[in-house]
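Workshop exercise sheet. Pairs work together: one partner reads the sequence aloud, the other fills in the structure field after running the prediction. Swap roles for the next sheet.
Pair: D.N. / O.F.
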Amino acid sequence: MKAITPMINEFSAVGINHWKADVAIRERFNLSGEQKKAFLEDARIIGLRDVLIVSTCNRTEIFARTATPGILVEMLVKYSNGKKEEFNQLGFMFSGEEAIRHLLRVAVGLDAQILGDLQIIKQVKEAYEYTHTLGMVDSVMHRLMQFVLRTHKRSRTETDLASGAATTAYAAVQFARKRLKSIRKKNILLVGTGKIGKITCKNLISMGARNVTLLNRNRDRAEILGDRFQLPVAGLENLVDEIANADLVIVATGADRTVIRLEQLAGLAGSEKKVVMLDLSVPRNIDPALDSHPNVELVNMDRLNDTTDDAYKRREKNIPKVEAIIDDEIRNFKIWLSEQKVVPTIRALNDKLHDIRNREMEKFRGKIPDAVRGDVDHLTRRIVNKIMAHSIDHLKENHEDFEEITRLVHSMFKLERETSVDK
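Structure field:
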């Protein structure tokens, strides 16, 4: 007889990321909010659960339990604009412990373009919370996320992986500062004031930028950020003039189409001025064709890294320590999975002992004075719970001998085997 228990080989991870795929490929596999919703609704229909979708500027990855990597790849291709041939050449498929390890490495920032990326754990949490709101998460994935969060916390508290500002926005501003020598007196246009835009704005100010103009499709949102940092706000109707006035344009919106195209550069016509443009969006928000424009130096995500930064070098020294933490937490998760073998037996034993208590209480109910009946009820519950506590400890400590100890407990207490094993 085989115990009903979650197994580590049930986990899968597939995806495409910055390690092999350039931004042109990644944007084809990027999943919008509507595409994620459709993906998960389809997953529900075919009986899949515990599916997490992490789709960011540098990766689109699917983590799941009880779904084969092949099924996940087919669904990724179906709901994105990527092709199966592209995935076969540039994507990855992991199963079992390898899939768990990849999820942990992503969450702590070891697999990120910016080592130790501070934003990726938020993106993993958002992916989990979205699936959870759809009612597609069970106790096993919930428990795995607890291990993910603990691994991340340990990587921050037990190592210096978080030293320095490890974000894409930080790397972008560092790139601009090095490219322009200084950003203090430069005119900077920041297009997009969402999550990445806010972080970029904060980094610009902290690194000395003084002339920053904010522009967002939703002007109210831009004005909130402008009030916080005392920065001017422009409307979309002013985009041509603002670009003509800028030395640096940073675009970080959530739009699924280009925001800056050739016509927005009309104000530069006849000028010898060079504008550095950083596109932090995937899909790209600056038309890639502008890379050949004489007035533009276009920089996309693939050119951003912090490997020459001193903070990166400090973080790099901590990689072995973080890998050791990941190894430790994978061992802990495997132990937890193994312990689940005895959970049905624990439940059956708990039901049996409380049934015995209830029957005995009912038998002597008429002989117990009303004044002490509550105390007797409380006492007998405590006795059963104490016995159960010792039994649970023993069962979990001997979970490796599951078959033998389960037979013994079932025989001793005459438990119903249907409650604990799969015939």
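Discussion prompt: Residues 418-423 have pLDDT under 50 and may be disordered. What would you look at next?
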